[in-house]
Design goal:
heterodimer, A: alpha/beta, Rossmann fold, six-stranded parallel beta sheet, elongated, B: 7 helices, rod-shaped, transmembrane (chain B), membrane (chain B)
């Protein structure tokens, strides 16, 4: 099958959506499909052979932060050329509502279009204003995929219609086979995420830490992620700061080894999560997971059966759950076992098979993807040249 | 005077262009409904055929075989207005027979059973998928057709008002589970 994938965000900048697309494309190529990924990228960045650059993304303020987006005449032309040259059986657009390549591709293409909605943004004012423009593009999508039941719900509320839920994929064996590191073992709690991003929840964990250390004085907290380390421990009493170890940014290998080593992985995120890939990675590595009870997390953890949940933003609840778990090796082992079994459904082999069945469902009896000539003004007067 | 006339012509032209564009949009939506309906038909037929194959293969016990054969046959032969009910009954029959993992294991042990079980699992998973995509396209077309501009200018022509396909498509627990879980 010839598959075209559209990535809305810059390939040079690491991010969840980019990683997802990279892994999906590589997995599909491994299965013998022809895959081409259209992504914004600087011209000098080395790209994998399956990625086609759509030009440089322009940083613009959008939706409260600076986003790197592609738009305008030149990008639209590149999208059309890619569609025309590719003769894809199906194109898979990620984040079709972001004002970038996804929307351009949706606008320019006709034929079987699959779209994945990753984020569950609250309805923004720009979206409401752009709705009449967005709708004609979005209604071309033949199949919508949401990454979680939560993302699906917001999608249905905001745009109407329906979507199938296919979770994000993880290479489970990569994590399951990582070698634990001795210096990270022995009553350790793990946290991975941006230190200076409050929504990742490190402040909640810091508030809970004194209580945890009071009950388990030999426990250690390992923090991997970018940010100001001194500011992060500022709220802790001086004598406890030594129990927190900062590892900085870690490589994928070290992340897997860290997750393999810790006794307990804590995800105290306070919001803004539509899936929770880190929990899946932690479970793949066989770490016992304790997470805040966000909708998305509760779903990934099977409503608390594959990992424990605590009331969001409640440092006391986090502390008592952590103390109880650290003092109960049997429960930790049980969580480990349950997590490892549960996480198989997020393995790429399963997830890619599901995505492929979506492709096959929409391509059954449909023509291949091409540029949508009807949207051109020339075509309406019969002036379109081929 | 001429200026007003020119403006009127320009406005009429713009309205005409907009209406023609909307008609194109509607046409595309109708084509999408046809495609998704064909895909749904294909998945339903595939599910019924695999079920019938299993029912006649002698892998299952006689009671389950008759039950499945009957339901699959009825689903395949159903008239259009009875189809949703017949397909729902097939879903119920499949749930009744494949409610237990042990039954699926028994099918897998038979010669060629591994493939048959895999095909049935794929079929029961794809039916809800195809149905969701179909109903989504129906909803999009309905939303546009209810709009004033479409009703007043009869842009939909004689195309029938699209109907959603409503059925019970809950897959059996033992087959819906992903491998390894």
């Amino acid at each position: 099958m010839k598959i075209g994938i559209v990535c809305p965000y810059s390939w040079d900048v690491p991010g969840g959506v980019q990683f997802h697309i990279r892994d999906l494309a590589e997995h599909l190529i491994g299965l013998g499909h022809e895959v081409s990924v259209l992504a914004p990228a600087d011209d000098e960045t080395p790209l994998p052979p399956y990625v086609v650059s759509a030009g440089r993304a322009v940083p613009v303020p959008y939706n409260g932060s600076v986003a790197r987006l592609n738009f305008g005449f030149l990008s639209a032309a590149r999208v059309r050329r890619w569609l025309h040259d590719g003769t894809f059986d199906v194109i898979h657009i990620h984040e079709p509502t972001s004002p970038s390549l996804g929307l351009l591709a949706c606008w320019a293409a006709q034929g079987p279009i699959v779209a994945t909605f990753h984020t569950s943004n609250p309805k923004s004012r720009a979206m409401i204003a752009a709705y009449p423009i967005l709708q004609p593009a979005l209604e071309k999508i033949s199949a919508r995929i949401a990454v979680s039941e939560y993302a699906r719900r917001t999608l249905v509320e905001h745009l109407g219609g329906d979507a199938v839920v296919i979770p994000n994929g993880v290479d489970v064996d990569f994590f399951a086979k990582a070698e634990p590191k001795a210096q990270w073992q022995g009553r350790t709690i793990g946290f991975i995420g941006r230190i200076d991003e409050p929504r990742k929840g490190l402040p909640v964990l810091m508030r809970a830490l004194p209580k945890i250390l009071a009950e388990c004085p030999d426990a250690r907290l390992l923090v991997a992620g970018r940010g100001d380390e001194e500011e992060a421990v500022a709220s802790l009493p001086k004598e406890m700061r030594g129990r927190v170890e900062f590892l900085g940014m870690v490589s994928d290998e070290d992340k897997a080894r860290l997750l393999r080593s810790v006794d307990l992985y804590v995800a105290p995120n306070t919001g803004g999560e539509s899936f929770g890939i880190i929990l899946v990675e932690a479970m793949s590595a066989g770490a016992a997971v304790l997470a805040s009870d966000l909708d998305a997390f509760a779903q990934v953890l099977d409503q608390g059966s594959a990992g424990e949940l605590f009331a969001n933003e409640e440092a006391d609840a986090l502390a008592s759950a952590a103390v109880r778990l650290l003092g109960d090796p049997e429960r930790l082992a049980e969580l480990r076992l349950k997590g490892s079994a549960h996480v198989r459904r997020f393995d790429w082999s399963t997830v890619a098979a599901d995505i492929l069945s979506v492709y096959e469902t929409v391509t059954d009896g449909a023509a291949s993807v091409d540029t949508d000539e009807r949207s051109g003004l020339r075509a309406r007067f019969g002036l379109a040249r081929d | 005077m001429t200026a007003t006339l020119i403006w009127i012509v320009v406005a009429l032209f713009a309205i005409g262009l907009y209406l023609s564009w909307t008609a194109g949009r509607l046409d595309r939506l109708h084509a999408r409904i046809d495609a998704s309906r064909a895909a749904l038909d294909a998945q339903l037929l595939r599910r019924a055929s695999v079920t019938q194959e299993l029912a006649t293969s002698g892998v299952l016990d006689p009671a389950a075989s008759i039950l499945l054969y009957q339901a699959a046959h009825a689903a395949r032969q159903a008239e259009e207005d009875h189809r949703e009910v017949a397909e729902s009954e097939l879903s119920q029959a499949l749930r009744a027979v494949f409610g237990e993992t042990a039954q699926v294991e028994a099918v897998k042990e038979a010669p060629g059973g591994e493939d048959a079980a895999g095909e049935l699992a794929a079929a029961v998973r794809r039916v809800p998928m195809a149905r969701r995509f179909h109903n989504d396209s129906v909803r999009a077309a309905r939303a546009l057709r209810r709009h004033r501009k479409v009703r007043w200018f009869r842009l939909a022509g004689h195309a029938p008002f699209p109907l959603a396909f409503e059925m019970d498509d809950e897959p059996p627990v033992a087959l819906a589970d992903r491998p390894g879980s």
